[in-house]
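Pipeline run #58 for the internal structure catalog. This entry was flagged by the ingest filter as a single-chain record with no existing model, so it goes straight to prediction. Upstream metadata was stripped on purpose; only the residue string is passed forward. Reviewer on rotation: M.T. Logging verbosity set to normal.
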Amino acid sequence: WNYPVWMALMQTNDNCGPQSAAMIEEMVKGIHDKYPDTEVVCGSMDDFYLELANYDLTDLPVIKKDLADTWIHGIGSFPKEIAVVREERERAKRLQVIYAKQVLEAIEEADDRGMEVLDDYYENISLFEEHTWGADVKTWLGPDRVYHKEDFLKAKQQKNYQFMESSWEEQRARAIQASAARKELTLLVEKEKRKKSFFNPGNADFTGWVLLEDLLVDFNAHHIELNGECLPTTRLGGQWACFVHDLPPFSTVPIWIKEGSVQAESLTVKEENDMASVENHRYTLTFNTASGEILSLYDKKMKAMLLEKCGDKPIFAYQYDRYGIEEITTYLRDYAYRFSTWGIQDYGREAYPECTHKTYTPRFISYNIDGSTITFRYEGTKSANRYGDARQVRLEITLPPAGDEVFVRLNLMNKQETPYVESGSLLFPFANAQTYRINKSNSVLNPEEDIQEDANHVYYCLENYMSAENNENGLCIITKDAPLVSLGDTGVYKYRRKYQQPKEPIAYFNLFNNMWGTNFPQWIGGDLSYRFVLFGYDKEESHILLERAAQLQGGIEITGNCFEKQDETLPEHMQL
């Protein structure tokens, strides 16, 4: 380091907060005793940069690639809460635009309490996303952990196990409180308004499906009109939705709810022997009616197979894995620089049984077609009895009567708790993938080139989407609730210092995992639900995926407010 300005990051232990003034004074005194001529400044990262910027930084080494987090597995331990946080984030964005419009246009209904509610929302979101997600596993569960189901259920009655669960409940409450704050903001911006409109909070025209859950209307007996046009309606994941064209940005368009349903275009279904194909105006889905295996998704517009069964891996297959002791040991060898006691306790599992990796898929029960949706039902067997799999699995695939998207929803009912290391995955086997793109924090990365060596080359945490393409076309997958994805395998207990081309072109979306120790939940149970939106695209359209995915993720707000369309011009130095 060739510069006279140095940074010392003085950290405290977990859950301790910042240093006291007395501790800081003692540290400064110790530095002066050792280096009498040193000037010590307590400040922020900005202060450090501003001082360092006074010097020639031409030769300063700069990391220009993504330092992908090798702890990111941990967010899979709170699947239900992550889904809540991601959903509320989009709804809060829409409401903030409405609230800002009320304030800027001096609308009487603008409530000063809105800022207080937003502060409460962001406080809880920030606390949820902060580093510590519970009490320390190695301290409270200790070396005498148990794993067999009967022993585990008894151990859960012990005070140390109950204390761990209460710490996870505290974290869970932050997601619930953030959701409550968003709902309060809805009440503030809407008041008692009856006339409803669609509001597009984005900066471009919106074309797509709008969820109608807030209207509380049975669209078996009603329909929606917009600008004198009857809108196509269908159910997406159990919720009514309608399709709109070119909703203008930053303005409202009134809607009219009238009696009488509008017949949507039905799916074309062909069955022969044990094979069935279902198609709408754009896509064809093929599956085996006897095994429940979904074999392919074909894009008629692109004349391209997008997803196709790979080996013994069908498309949209749910897979449950229980991990063995050798995988844990191998991971510790690959990941650790030193074998410190705390590291082995945190990253491994104390007293883990001698067992091997087991993979399970649920048993197919039945399928049915209702409207635009094909529903497949499965059930867990011994994987639920012995470990932590779901008792029932329901997969819904919607090929709607308009638009370019396919909607997928996976429901896991009555997932059991287990302290064994486990994961659940939804598989997307690509038909002709050559390259992949990962959307992280308003950026698009090529995982082969854009991630720093020794960072995380296994799990990618998505903002909105990932894509897989070849020289002609591709498939975009938007994930609503499950941000973790790996390529070629489940990713659990894997560490790769560099990118490796996946042996199989399969995206494994992680639905849950309890791989990480530290302070993350060690067992997961209940009912879980995950939503995905897919669409095919021409290779030349790759550059629009970031904006299109953000649009579809952001959605449309149904509001009682009225905002006229305005041609607002931003200063030259500003852009949206």
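catalog note: The CA atoms of residues 163 and 475 lie 45 Å apart.
catalog note: The first strand starts at residue 197 and ends at 199.
status: ready for reviewer M.T.
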